[in-house]
Amino acid sequence: MQMQPKGSHFVNGAYIDDADGAAFDVVYPATGAVIARLHAATPAVIEAALAGAQAAQKDWARLKGVERGRILRRAADLIRARNHDLSVLETHDTGKPLSETLYVDPTSAADALEYFGGLAGALTGEHVPLGDNWGYTMRVPLGVCVGIGAWNYPIQIAAWKGAPALACGNAMVFKPSETTPLSALALAEILHEAGLPAGLYNVVQGMGEVGAALVTDPRVAKVSLTGSVPTGKRVYAAAAAGMKHVTMELGGKSPLIIFDDADLDSAVSGAILGNFYSSGQVCSNGTRVFVQRGLKEAFLHRLSARLQGARIGDPLDQATTFGPMVSARQLGIVEGYIAKGLAEGARLVAGGTRLNQPGYWITPTVFADVTDNMTIAREEIFGPVMCVLDFDSEDEAVTRANATEFGLSAGVFTRDLTRAHRVIAALEAGSCFINSYNDAPVELPFGGSKMSGVGRENSRAAIEHYSQMKSVFVRMGVCEAPF
Ligand code: NDP
Residue 244 half-sphere exposure, CB side, CA atoms within 13 Å? Predict the structure, then answer.
């Protein structure tokens, strides 16, 4: 099926193209078929996007918050009304099964637009009494913001950055991953259909160098990246040179600790959600599954049985629950880690098999007897590879769980809720779960600590990252000076 958009980029309220930009193909991961051909942004396209954003931002910021919010909420309604078609598009772009995209991808974009649309009218400052004088604060936008996305949740990432940016009165230039460039264009089109003035939400395509050109432009006040730690370091450094605000949503190697008093099926569900949803291509995944020794064999047994229920196949069939990897490159990376796991002595309990068919398919993979020093226990794989590690005591589990440079997420399964809160408090991670895994409601902050990033997306916390405070001192009497 062809998914060719009307143009590669969406700039100043319209699709545009520039055939001078390097051409790249968009591939349906389930079959390897080319579904669209786009061009990377040329300097002229980047200039048009940045100049348009800068020109449009001030008038947008002058609107009442409720007026900005109304447009965002209208866009949310349009997304919900078109959820099916948008989900089909996202499934073609990412390979994720429709059974996921229908419930998570466009809908979470709609949630963000609805939530921040609602908050837009409530972004106020404070009155500060100062004796005879007084002061007040104002929450003001940053200006032109740049968003750069990863390929695993394309429309969600585009909206998680765009919605708070626009609610606060900023303009945005968004660069999707070139692996999944389509749904951000659809979001831009819908925002403008909902009444967003031209220039406020632009989408430009391209590889890292397009992102780098955006990040280093002096007109840009803020950069929000979702991507890997190495890219995050580069983008953070480039932004620092221009003293720009940053949000970094980066990778992880998160622990999921299962105590032997846990509800077994619930814990297995958590491990499945935290490792195999979106074929494991989720930054917050709990890929180091620490299982207390008393539960280990029962856990592995139940997990293996439950994996038999995975429906691997046509992502457009709503009965399918497990799709392909996003690209040949990502499949190669995952296969490389599976080979390393075997070479370093981990015990393959399930999966690890590449399907002999077009597209980028690998079965859900579980390694047991994994030790902390193995490569598969230390590095982010970003694929459906679960590592099961044994532990004895709570202290040991917490110490080993924290022994990583990452700090994105953490989860705990236990019936002892006092212990659950104690363990979660001790884990060094930004987004945590008790008796659940990978829930990301827009009302809760999302983001990581340590090398997993800085800043938070979603919730009121995101407002802090797309606006700044301005304070005003007001003297009521005469202003005096010493000379
Ligand atoms: P990458 O880091 O490779 O790329 C992320 C984005 O940055 C892409 O759009 C990429 O463009 C762009 N980019 C690359 N180099 C530069 C540069 N020098 N300057 C500006 N932009 C640049 O990540 P992936 O796309 O491979 O995504 C997977 C990673 O994302 C994983 O590590 C995962 O953990 C992380 N992630 C984090 C999430 C979170 O919220 N914490 C959520 C989802 C994913 P291009 O790809 O076109 O080269």
Answer: 27
Residue 385's H or E segment, with its range, is strand 385-391
Ligand 1 centre distance from Cα of residue 384 (Å)? 18
- For residue 356, the SS3 value is coil
Name the maximum alpha-carbon separation found in the chain.
86
Whether the predicted pLDDT of 314 surpasses 90 = yes
Residue 90 annotated among the catalytic residues of the structure: no
pLDDT in tens, 88-110: 999 999 999 999 999 999 999 99
Count of positions (residues) in the chain: 483
Nearest to 183 by CA among 26, 411, 355, 356: 26
Distance in angstroms (rounded) separating the CA atoms of residues 109 and 48? 26
pLDDT digits (tens, 9 = 90+) for 355-364: 999 999 999 9
Tens digit of each residue's pLDDT (9 = 90 or more) over 116-153: 999 999 999 999 999 999 999 999 999 999 999 999 99
Distance CA 97, CA 313 (A): 9
CB atoms within 10 A of CB 102: 18
What span, in angstroms and rounded, lies between the C-alpha atoms of 407 and 392? 23
* List 145, 168, 283, 387, catalytic entry: 283
For β-strands 409-413 and 245-249, DSSP reports them as unpaired
Closest protein CA for atom 14 of ligand 1: 208
| Residue 1 pLDDT > 90 | no
